[in-house]
Structure formats: structure tokens, C-alpha cells
Amino acid sequence: MKTLYPYKILFVEDDQVIRENYVAYLKMMFSEVYEAKDGEEAYALYKIKKPDLMIVDINLPKLTGLELLKKIRENDHTTKAIMLTAHTDKSFLLEAIQLKLTQYLVKPVSSKDLNEALELTIKELLQYNVMPLQKIELPQNL
């Protein structure tokens, strides 16, 4: 029996069938797999579960994948992120680059491409520990 990676992963996709298939696949690889159907649900789960890795569709209801990751990146640069998208438009790619993604995968995603992205992410998690040096909160009237 294959050992599961000890990482928490959050998969965010609004299409139920796609989400269920990915989650079933990811549960064969990771010890904890969470799922969300929209950006708001994903952000709430992110705050509670603190995943090590997120796989996020770009087109989500309530809060897009880009908006979700921007919100997360305000205070967190350690959670790894893989973006799934049907967009090949340069503007989406350029916006996504600023979010420190591990991978940007264009749908339909092959199992080979997904596995390579997951292997790269796991390698980053094993080799690098990124921590903020300090966070300073300043009063608004300063």
C-alpha cells in the first residue's frame, strides 16, 4: 500500500462531477483532502484548515480563483497553489503570475500534467520552508 503524503490539500472547483473525480484521485495521494464549490467556501475552509496546497479553478462563483488567491496572498506566501483554467488569454496568465503559483494548468488537464505539478509542489514543500520574518501592524492614522 502506498504511503500518503502528509499534506493538507484544498481542491476548489464549481463543477461537481469534476470536483468529485479530482478529490477521489487526490485522496489516494494525500492524507487530508478538502473541497469547495466556490471562492467564499474555499476561503472559509482555508482559514480553518490551513492547507499546504491548493488547486484552484480560475472561474468560480462568488469569488474567482484569482480573487481568492489575492486575498490569501495578502498574508500568506507559503501555501502552494496550482491554478486550473480554460483561459489561454495572456491577461489571465500575467495576473496569475503575481500570485506566486507553482503551476498554471490549462484545461483539460492530463493526468501526466497534474502529476508533474503535484510532484513539483511536493518537492517545494520538502525542500523549502518559507516563513515571514516579521509582520508589523501600523495604526491607520500613523
Characterization of the model:
40% of the residues lie in helices and 21% in strands. With 142 residues, it is of the alpha/beta class. The chain has a five-stranded parallel β-sheet, with helices on both faces.
Outline the secondary-structure elements:
Elements: E1 5-12, H1 16-27, E2 30-36, H2 39-49, E3 53-57, H3 65-73, E4 80-85, H4 90-97, E5 103-106, H5 111-127
Parallel strand pairs: 1-2, 1-3, 3-4, 4-5
User: Could you tell me the strand content as a percent range?
Assistant: 15-25%
How many structural units, i.e. domains? 1
Low-pLDDT stretches are none
Order of helices and strands: EHEHEHEHEH
Number of strands: 5
Derived from helix and strand composition plus strand pairing, the structural class reads alpha/beta
In what order do the strands lie side by side in the largest sheet?
Answer: 2-1-3-4-5
Mean pLDDT score: 85
Biggest beta-sheet profile: 5 strands, parallel
Helical stretch tally: 5
**CATH-derived architecture:** 3-Layer(aba) Sandwich
Structure characteristics:
21% strand; globular; 5 helices; alpha/beta; 142 residues; single chain; 5 strands
Task: Write a compact overview of the structure shown.
The protein is an alpha/beta fold.
